[in-house]
Each structure stands twice: as C-alpha cells, then as structure tokens.
Amino acid sequence: MSSKERSSTVPLLSQKHSGIPENLLDKAEKAKVLIYETRTKSPGTGQRLLVIPQGIEQARFFQAIEELGQTLGVENVEVNDKPLVDGWYMEHPNTHDMMPILDDEELVASAVVYPSDTEEVQKIVLWANKYRVPIFPISMGRNLGYGGAAPRVRGSVVIDLGKRMNRILDINPDDYTCLVEPGVSFYALYETIQAKGYKHMWIDTPDLGGGSVVGNTLDRGVGYTPYGDHWACHSGLEVVLPTGEVIRTGMGALPGNSTWQTFPYGFGPYSDGIFSQSNFGIVTKMGMTLMPNPGGYESFMYAFEKDEDLEALIEIIRPLRIGSILENVAQVRHVIQTLAVKGRLRTNYFTGDGAIPEEIVHEHARKMPVGDHSWLYYGMSYGPEHIRKYKLDIIDKEFRKIPGARRIDPKTLPEDEYFWSRDRIAAGVPDLVELLWVNWVPNGSHVAFSPVSPIRGTDAMKLFNMGKRLHDKYGIDFFPAFCVGLREMHLIVEIVFDKKDPKKRKAANDCLRELIDDAAKEGYGEYRTHLVLMDQVAGTYGWNDNALKKFNEKLKDALDPNGILAPGKSGIWPARYRKRGWELTKTSGNRSEGNGVASSATTKL
Ligand code: ADP
C-alpha cells in the first residue's frame, strides 16, 4: 500500500473502480474541502422507510428481494433503508439524485444490486419480470445534472453495473479500439492506456473524468478532442434485452468476427441507436474507437469584449469548424463562469438578492489573469507545429475581425488558471476542475438546459437573450456556454442552485420548464435532459401528432411487455404506466409518482 493510499481521504482508482487517479488526488482533496466547507445540509440519521415501488405488495417485494439475494449473494443486494447521503462527485450515492430539484425522497431506489457479469444481469431482468419490479440500470451513476444515479420511478431497483463489471476487456493498439464494461471510467481507461505505454493512442474525455465511458456514451455525452462525439465513436454493443435475451450489435452478431470494434454497422438495420437515451436494453459491453496521437497540440484562447460579439463570433466559427480548421468541440464561455470556476461562493462577490449584476462580474474579471471580457473561446490545434501554425494563423486572422478581440498568451497564465484544465481535456487527459463552479452557492447543485441550434449568430443571440430574460425573471445567475459541434451547437446552461432550499429548487425547475417551452416555440430542442424534465422535452419532439413518441411506445411495448426496464426514462412509458398521471410536467408539482400501474400480466417469460 502506498503512503498516498494510506492517507487519502478520497478513494483512489487503485482501491475502487470509481476512484481518483493518484495524480489528481491533491485536486480532489481540495475540491472536497471546498464543497464541505459550504455545505449546510446535513444527511438524515437513523433508518428511513423503504420506498416500495407501486404495483407490488410489500410482503411480496421483500420475498422478491430475498430471492434475488439468494441468486446474486446477499452481499450484492442492498436495501435502501438508510439515510440518503449525498456525498460529492468522487463519493457519490447510487441510491438517489444527489442534486435533486424535487424533494429528496422522490427519485429514490428501493434497493441496489450488483451483478458481476452479463449472465447475472439476465437473471436480474428475469427476476424483475417475474415480480413486475421496475429496474433502473446505471453504469457509474455520475450523470450529475441529469439525475445522477437516480431512477425515474420511485422505488425502482437500481442495477449498479459498474461496481463489479468494470473490466477493460480489450485495448487494441493496432486498430486503436477498446472494449469496455460499464464500470470503466474515463480516468481508468486513460490510466490503463498510459500504464501500457501506448503513447500513440488518446482517449476522449468529458469535462470531468469520473463518469463511465459506457454511461456517458449511451447518454450521448461529448468530449473535447476531435473524437468528441462519443456516440459517433463507439462501435458495437452487447445488450441484455428487457425480456432477458442477450444480443450483440453490428459485427458482434457474427460468430468468429474480429471486426466488432472496427465496423459499427454489421448487416441489416442498425440497432444501436435504440439503446442510447432509451429504456430498451441494458448495455453490458461497448466498443470504443481511440484517437491516434496527433503528434503535437496547442491550446489557444481568445477574449471578446461584449455580449453582442457572440453573433459575429459564431458566424466566424461556422465555416472554420465545418472545414476542420477549428478541430475540436470548442467552448465559448461567458465571463461569469470565469469567476465561478474559481470555486468560491457568489457571496464573495455579491450579497444581494437576484442575479448578480453584470458590472460586479466585470469588475472582478478585470482583476483576473485573463482580464475583463464577455466571452472566452477555448480551442486546441492539433498536429506538428507547421500544421498548427497554418490553422492558427487563419483562426487569428478571422477572430481578430471582431473589434477588441484579444488572443491571450498561455504563457501569461498561472498554473492554476482554468485554461490549463481545458488544455488537458482537449488533449484527452481527464481532469476534475470543472465541478468547482458548483460551489457558487452553498449545497451547490446543478441542472442543465441544453438546446441544440444551428451554428448561426442570430440563433446564438436569440438563445442567449431568452436565457438571460428567464434567469433574470427567476433571480438566477445565468451560466451560458456554447459548445460548437460539427454542424450544430449545443448551448449548455447550468443552473446552479442550493438543494437545501425548496424555493431555489422550485425556481430552477420553473425556469427550466419555461426555457424548454420557449426554446421549442423557436424550434430548438434539448439534446439531453434531467429525469424530471424528460416528459416535457420528449413532448416537444411532437411532429406529426407525436408520431415519434408513438413509435417509441410501440418499441417499448414490444421489447418490454411487462414494462420493467427504466419506465419513463426519456419520456417513454410502458403500457402499464400510461394514462395514470406519471408524466412530470409544468403543473405536476413535486410528486414524481402516478396513480398505480396496470396489474395485467402480459407475458410469461
Ligand atoms: P455516468 O456515470 O457516465 O455519468 P450513468 O451511469 O449515470 O453514467 O448513466 C447515464 C445514463 O445512461 C443513465 O440515464 C442510465 O440509466 C443510462 N445507462 C447507463 N449505463 C447504462 C447501461 N449499461 N445500459 C443501459 N443504460 C445505461
């Protein structure tokens, strides 16, 4: 045991599949201190009442749990009757949403189970069908801001796949591919590739590296190298269907193949799509392509003075991005984030009510190493120096067309400047800095509004103004960041709120619901959302009398006749739950449950 292992107050990757790599331990320990210093919410004490899911009698539920314990081993079935402990990013719960917008007790599990392999996942699925118990799979449950580990249906049994299924099954240094189980984090994949000495291969990581490669990809998360679209970069799935059968997609269906991770399509309909952002299957293995080391890289940053500069900037970005002169998912972040990512409470800057005044944000930005600005563009150029120079010169010429645009020389920035975190991430090195802005308020939590739009200046301004207006209306600080993909951009707005304060939770919820509706009226839809908002977001995709929703329901009923797998996730409700008030909407209040489920037994498996 190393001395770090003995003394660390944060679990290390060498100790736990969800732990932190040793080289990030100091950062993790500091981040933890900041979070606990401002926390006033205390965890409950003593026993809690177990939440039994609707549709099963209490005695039968306990009988079912006992049976599952006999199948998996009692140590692999944990009943959730203990206080709900929120922890923090590196020590997160698998029983509930640690960043709840509803009451703590709404999105909670009745039990958590830990399968060790695909066969055990099948056994759990058959068990759920036998007893009609809703189950909810998570890989690592770090989908924070979108629901974390929480199930949508109260009292579901969470299947924590990551704890025991965390093997890297293959890394192929010739094909630049890997095959992973759900419990492999970006940290773990990166560290393993480094330990093997494969310097010629990069991974792509999201802002925080503790999430599961499988979980993040299934939820269509993004990273910041040219391989940033994780879903587009995966190749091949192994899936346990809601009725217990196992399939392999793409070339994986061909016995004896050696192309599962190199050709994603196989033959016939491309089925992978229905397993992402859905509730149609449990993914137990996934192939992922890895990026060749580009032979050099260089981060750059530009500052723009005025909010309105966004319009011209986005127009400049579009052709450069589509033409791959701008090579990665670049971020255009607003000045308030420059302040917030320092990890300090907003009360250090402003103690009044309502959204923090712009002058105050600028006043503090002026004193920072990056200087005053409205927007910062964080980008990375890849390849050997002469190739980078060619691209960077074009970028410089174009960006400087905006009056007052400033290139910030990285050499002028201190080591702890956020820029260096973006530098690591855009080079595929997982980090831990991004969560610091959660400390903007005590008991800091976040939930995202993430609409997709064309890469157009007018759309950017429309979304920016809409967001600002509604944040002002609800007295919430506005944290916009535009992430520019290849032909579209996501606006990511993180609402940071104090989870202990029901008024702040409600303001966040109300603001988000109004944002979703207003954005939809203008033709913008979210690419991903929190569990509580999924019904509403799915409802905005209602073209042709909700044809897509009806299609999803048809698939759901065919694949999951007993409606046991993650009911309600992505706004897809199985027949047993429909028309019983389970949808969460603007008017449904704080209650996540509907009125019962149909008892009809459809299929005997
Ligand atoms: P991460 O830890 O990467 O953030 P999560 O485990 O929280 O990811 O999962 C993100 C989302 O994807 C959740 O909604 C979860 O239900 C779903 N999901 C995660 N892993 C699987 C899986 N192996 N099979 C099916 N759905 C999954």
Structure description:
Its cofactor is FAD. This is Related to Vanillyl-alcohol oxidase. Pfam families: FAD-oxidase_C (PF02913), FAD_binding_4 (PF01565). It comes from Phialocephala subalpina. The protein is an alpha+beta fold. Among the domains are: 37 residues, no CATH class; 125 residues, 2-Layer Sandwich (Uridine Diphospho-n-acetylenolpyruvylglucosamine Reductase, domain 3), CATH 3.30.465.10; 238 residues, FAD-linked oxidases, C-terminal domain (Vanillyl-alcohol Oxidase, Chain A, domain 3, 3-Layer(aba) Sandwich), CATH 3.40.462. Strands 12, 13, 14, 15, 16, 17, 18, 19 and 20 form a 9-stranded antiparallel sheet that branches. It has a 5-stranded antiparallel sheet with strand order 5-6-10-8-9. Strands 1-2-4-3 form a 4-stranded mixed sheet, with helices on one face. A hairpin with a 3-residue loop joins strand 18 and strand 19. The chain is globular. The N and C termini lie far apart (48 Å). Bound molecules: adenosine-5'-diphosphate (ADP). Adenosine-5'-diphosphate (ADP) binds next to strand 3, helix 6 and strand 10. Adenosine-5'-diphosphate binds next to strand 3, helix 6 and strand 10.
Give a nutshell description of this structure.
By secondary structure, this protein is of the alpha+beta class.
Put simply, the count of helices is: 16
* Backbone CA Rg: 24 Å
Helix/strand class: alpha+beta
Question: Describe the biggest sheet?
Answer: 9 strands, antiparallel
Residue share in helix: 25-40%
Task: Indicate the CATH architecture of the domain at 297-534.
Answer: 3-Layer(aba) Sandwich
Beta strands, count: 20
N-to-C terminal Cα separation, in Å? 48 Å
Bound molecules: adenosine-5'-diphosphate
Mean pLDDT: 95
CATH superfamily of the domain at 297-534: FAD-linked oxidases, C-terminal domain
- The low-pLDDT segments are none
The outline comes out as globular
Percent of residues in β-strands: 15-25%
- Annotated CATH topology of the domain at 297-534: Vanillyl-alcohol Oxidase, Chain A, domain 3
The CATH class label of the domain at 297-534 is Alpha Beta
